[in-house]
Prior knowledge:
Elements: E1 2-3, E2 6-10, H1 17-28, E3 32-34, H2 35-43, H3 47-54, H4 56-72, E4 77-79, H5 88-97, E5 98-104, H6 107-113, H7 128-146, E6 149-152, H8 158-171, E7 175-176
Parallel strand pairs: 2-4, 2-5, 3-4, 5-6
Antiparallel strand pairs: 1-7
Helix pairs in contact: 1-8, 2-4, 3-4, 4-5, 5-7, 6-7
Amino acid sequence: MNASQSVFLVGLPGSGKSTVGRQLSRRLGLPFVDSDQVIEQRIGSSIRAFFDREGEEAFRDLESQVIDEVTGGPLAVVATGGGAVLRPENRACLHDRGRVVYLRSTPEDLARRLRNDRHRPLLQVADPLVRLKDLYAQRHPLYAETAHFAIDTGRPSVATLVNMILMQLELAGWVANVPQHDPPPTS
């Protein structure tokens, strides 16, 4: 496998960035980095607790530092937080330092996926669907501006989404020799 640049995944909360990113990293033979996990390790608590304690602005400051670090580091597949594109400097780091894939999901699909999630601070509201529609209206143009291409998450399996991403990366010349299926286990 020959990946010439890192791959950064952007999209709304629940769009599958971490799940797809883990499988994509295995297929590309690159390390996987979840920027939210990096933040949680750094602060020693959950993002939700930090959000409640310090506020969104302090969180976005820390997120910008982490985005700068992970996009400037060794080649990797990086899942970003849903709001990573809110700041222009983050969008520039992502777009200029690797290949950005927007995992595009409808608010309705996300509401179904996240109906029992209690860990995403921005969705702890009376009507998460309304909140997701607002987030989509605000962030969709930013994801689209940042991304090199978009993949609709809809109903495909994770494996299908990974294959779709790999095909786009290969067609664009950003990776070569991508096997279409996971290699068989070795004994």
